[in-house]
Design a protein that fits this description.
GO terms for molecular function: ATP binding; dTMP kinase activity; nucleoside diphosphate kinase activity. This protein is an alpha/beta fold. It has nine helices and five strands; from the N terminus they run βαβαααβααβααβα. The relative contact order is 0.23. The structure holds thymidine-5'-phosphate.
Length: 212
């Protein structure tokens, strides 16, 4: 504290229920920042390209069975295996727009009945986002969107429980955006919150860790 840290990139996370529009909005937000001349990368969790990510992907496609604790820890490991690269990128000035993070990890596992504190424990020490953009959409609305129900968790009752747990996790880094607004209106709000956050990080806001 009190020490002036260097300029860095921002860690920006998008969260929301399945089909809330996160993926298209993350892509739009990343291209917007790139057009503005910022150095930016688009990331997502799970990262299905790693070995751990392949195990997660098989589970999500219902091609493998794992107990709730095991898949929870795999999702967490999938973030830990990216932690040092994430830190290097941020410190070198790259802003990361990340589609899902630890909040998905906790909200989805807690929705199955696992204890929240148990779910948070393996996430402790990961980098804390500078901004969490939560796309708020009623579970019923999400269920009406295209391709719903293809993957394991895309079921209305379950998504209702996930929404409940997201609300418990909400803290001062979160901005809740109404995901039912027209796409352009959502886009505009996300841009405003993001620009504010990116300049804060450029001015040297220190990096912090999650849930310690
Ligand atoms: P995706 O559709 O954004 O690729 O995410 C795949 C599913 O995995 C989605 O239903 C949310 C769920 N999930 C978890 O259960 N735990 C996690 O840690 C993450 C990142 C996603």
């Amino acid at each position: 504290k009190g020490q002036k840290s260097d300029s860095r990139g921002a860690l920006i996370v998008l969260e929301g229920l399945d089909r809330s529009g996160k993926t298209s909005q993350s892509a739009k937000l990343a291209s917007f920042l790139a057009e503005k001349g910022f150095s930016v990368e688009s990331w997502r969790f799970p990262d299905r390209k790693t070995c751990v990510g392949e195990m997660i992907s098989l589970y999500l496609l219902n091609k493998s069975q794992l107990d709730d604790q095991t898949i929870h820890l795999l999702f967490s490991a999938n973030r830990w295996e990216k932690r040092s690269l994430m830190e290097t990128k941020l410190r070198s000035g790259v802003t990361l727009v990340v589609d899902r993070y630890s909040y998905s990890g906790v909200a989805f596992s807690a929705a199955k009945g696992l204890d929240i504190q148990w779910c948070k424990a393996p996430e402790m020490g990961l980098l804390a986002p500078d901004l969490v953009l939560y796309l708020d959409i009623p579970p019923e609305k999400a269920a009406e969107r295209g391709d719903y129900g293809v993957e394991r968790y895309e079921q209305l009752d379950f998504q209702r429980k996930v929404a409940h747990h997201y609300k418990i996790l909400c803290d001062e880094t979160w901005k809740i955006v109404d995901g039912c607004l027209p796409m352009e209106a959502v886009e505009k709000q996300l841009r405003e919150f993001t620009l504010e956050c990116v300049s804060k990080c450029q001015r040297g806001e220190p990096l912090s860790q999650l849930w310690l």
